[in-house]
Write a structure and sequence with these properties.
By secondary structure, this protein is mainly α. It is built from four helices and no strands. Helix 2 crosses helix 3.
Length: 73
């Protein structure tokens, strides 16, 4: 697996893990981050390459640092 794919999978898995730990749906996270629900799903499935601005919005909504999404790389 190349680095880009590994990073996208790690970000997506971490967002999903934190979201589920809070008991949030994709729709709720999307509303909190001012993003579309389908976009959150695509990030979690590593289908899109989100900008750092969108990653920051998700991190802020979840109340975690951006670094959390890259932990373990």
């Amino acid at each position: 697996m190349n680095q880009k794919r590994r990073v996208l999978k790690t970000i997506g898995k971490t967002i999903k893990k934190v979201r589920l730990a809070r008991g949030w749906s994709q729709m709720y996270l999307a509303a909190e981050a001012s993003l579309d629900k389908s976009y959150i799903g695509a990030i979690e499935r590593a289908e899109v390459n989100p900008s750092i601005k969108k990653i920051a919005r998700i991190a802020d909504a979840l109340g975690v640092s951006i670094g959390e999404f890259f932990h373990g790389l």
